[in-house]
Design goal:
By secondary structure, this protein is of the alpha/beta class. The chain contains eleven helices and nine strands. α1 packs across α6. Pfam families: NmrA.
Length: 284
Amino acid sequence: MEPKLLIIGVTGNVGKEVASLLSKRAVPFKAAVRKLSSAAPQPYRTDVYLDITKPESFALALQGVERIFLIRPPAISDPRYFEPFLQEASLAKVKHIVFLSLLGAQTLFFVPHRKIEKRILKTNMKYTFLRPSFFMQNLNTTHLEEIRDDHRIFVPAGQGRTSFIDVRDIAEVAVRVLTEEGHENRAYDLTGSEALTYGEVAARMTEAWGIPITYANPSIADFKAYWKKKGFPADMINVMTGIYFTAKIGAAKKVTRDLERLIGRPPITIGQYVKDYRSIFGWM
């Protein structure tokens, strides 16, 4: 019997946690990957080849699928790439698509998440938009080197506040939405329980680790130059800059109780996160 769930983005922060939770709860699913591995199969997980930019990969991946968890690959900023996939999913009679969007996407016309939302709304599939704030785990992935090696957070967010959220909480919401009824045609704003500046985050890290971490607050030009030197493509840098701009202008400070209502407990705090991920940053 074909698994009825397709999880896209299983190598990313949220997708990896969603896949892990589904396996722990013995829920069969397909994991979309761009390169099939010869590693031993994992319980309840079936890897299938899927590349959003290659329509020839769609049909087999979508076979038997009723619900999709869709994440925009960071390297794909042009929402037009998603149109053929959404059309194919609709033709394959997918019933429900759960899209990992962005807090405030409904009013942020310049972010690709909003443009993808609008394309999903044009299909005949039911939808759920998960609109989380900035992931805490972006600090230990995208920004790991600058924090670990340079002891600084280097983002152009000014003194704007962000209601940081732990991806472990997002994953718990996603699994509920994918496996329960009653979430169709809804949007959930998912945040942590407090909104912090990046300076305050650096202070929490300093306190927890005993290692001075600063917030650099670079100009946009310096931020772009930093990531260009690292070899990141211009489109990806522009998306990152746009996301930090939303924080700078105060669009990321919203705190909601959607997450607590959905999972029945308070969100994981930034204090708990920095303790849990201490070893990831190299502080044993």
